[in-house]
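User: Hey, my collaborator sent me this sequence without any context and asked if I could get a structure. I don't really work with proteins. Can you help?
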Amino acid sequence: MLSRLLGRLLKGRRAGEQRLAWHHPAVASAPALLELSSGSFGAGQTIPVAHAGKGVGENRSPALAWRGLPSETEELVLIIEDADAPLPRPFVHMVATGIDPNLRGLPEAAFNPPASIHAVLGRNSFGKTAYAGPRALPGHGPHRYSFQLLALNGKLHFDNPPTLREVLAQLDRSVLARGRLDGIFERI
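Assistant: No problem. I've predicted the 3D structure and written it out in structure-token form, which is a compact way to encode the shape of the chain:
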């Protein structure tokens, strides 16, 4: 299998933790007060194959729950990135803005058609406005998928589905708090 060989050849190449949105100055300056969890997997645990991307799993977005939102929160942003992708930057699996802060979580498949919540889906690294589950290269080793939740003190506005870069550009001094949940996925 060519993809397995490619995975082994690129095994030492990783985008890196420091390139995640979590470390962007507008995000990193906010306190990590939010508790983000999933009924689908625990922190640092394996993400079930049901949540893996097309061709690998069922591509269902996992259930998420959170606590600790500041009372001034007007909007939530959810970013999912793979810090271990063999690329210059982490692979963006999903960007969602406009999530209602009155919610305390999201059910499984909330971002799968037909979406069960109101949110603005931005463009992932495939250029699609959708959840894209884990699809690490076979043989590349374990990949960390970082689910990053941001509580904002204002609302973001976009004319078109935004990229992660466009979302980050609008966050200056608006992130009140942040939370993170990392899961692991590997294809042997």
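In plain terms: Residues 2-9 form the longest helix (8 residues). You can pass these tokens on to your collaborator as they are.
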